[in-house]
Amino acid sequence: MMRLSLKKTMINVFLLAAMALALAGGVASDDTFTTGKNLAVSPTMEQAGKDYNKFAVVIGIVYDNYEFGVINFADRDAGSVYGLLTEKLGYPEENVVLLQNHEATRENIMAALEGLAENPAIDAGAEVTVFYSGHGVRSAPDVGLNIPGREPGYAIVPFDFLGFDYRSGAGLIWDRELADVLGRIEPGKMWVMIDSCNAGGFTRPGITGPNRVVTLSSRAEEMSNEIDGAGRGVFTYFLVEEGLARGLSVEQAFSNSVPPAAGHGQTPQIVDQYPGNLFLR
User: Fold this and answer.
1) Is 151 exposed, middle or buried (0-12, 13-18, 19+ CB in 10 A)?
2) Which of 94, 151, 227, 269 could form a disulfide with 216 if both were Cys (CB 3.0 to 4.6 A apart)?
């Protein structure tokens, strides 16, 4: 029997009962975007040769600061994705920035993403992956983080976030910042994944966009969870290790991940603006 541990957040005080309807092209809900595609399965995946037109930033954070509760396995999530990209999917190690725990400061995260945005080698023939596992928070009056002059928004939490910045929002990385930097990356195909509480709120244009698929671990108002027995976040485990690692497209891996994730109390979301099925290969 697998035990659950919550990716807790003091900001999000609501944990809604997850209801998932698995469709051929995704999940239908008031804030879910469906693929509307025939989700083909990839041929058997073999060891990929290195492709120097593949780039990634992979982030996973287990915190010393327990302001938002305890996360146990986000660094392992990142390690799993890093291994998949570099060992099976042909990403050269020198093209992948891996930031785990104390390395994943606000400065380092933004520098890594800016590095993608400013890389002249990333063109219409390139493939880009951006993965984040850690805390996610939202700014809204009903959750206590209501910042004067700031519209409601969503943020990821760097390792060096200080608890006393909580009310000001300083030190977080807001969705508008992510949208600005990710929106300047224009590869032929791009996969963005966020495994955090409130992940479904990260849908601003720029994060989403043409030629990319964005997979999010929960609705905007939901928590995301971990599986102690697997040593992974729920969504990362089912989408990455039970899906992408077996050669599925991102869309098919997402579709397959929805029912088991719902069984763990969260409703994954997808924004799919990639023509056809996005295979990382």
Assistant:
1) exposed
2) 269
Amino acid, res. 184: R
The 10s digit of each residue's pLDDT in 174-218 is 999 999 999 999 999 999 999 999 999 999 999 999 999 999 999
> Phi/psi of residue 101, each to 5°?
55, -120
Angle at which helix 175-182 crosses helix 106-117, to 10 degrees, equals 30
132, 193 contact by CB (below 8 A): yes
Tokens of 235: 């969504």
Kindly report, residue by residue over 111-129, the tens digit of the pLDDT. 999 999 999 999 999 999 9
Cβ–Cβ < 8 Å for 163, 67: yes
Where do we find the tokens 């929805």? 258
pTM: 0.83
- pLDDT tens column, 155-172: 999 999 876 666 667 789
Strand 4-7: give its sheet, edge to edge.
4-7, 224-227, 232-233
Rg (CA), the chain: 17
Pairing mode of beta strands 173-174, 153-156: antiparallel
Residue tagged 């995704």 (tokens): 26
CA distances from residue 203 to 4, 162, 208, 210 in whole angstroms, order as listed? 27, 26, 6, 13
Contact 233, 226 (CB under 8 A): yes
What fold characterizes domain 4-13+21-35+49-272? Rossmann fold (3.40.50)
Alpha-carbon distance of 181 to 115, in angstroms, equals: 10
The structure tokens listed for 185 are 């990356």
3-state secondary structure of 155: strand
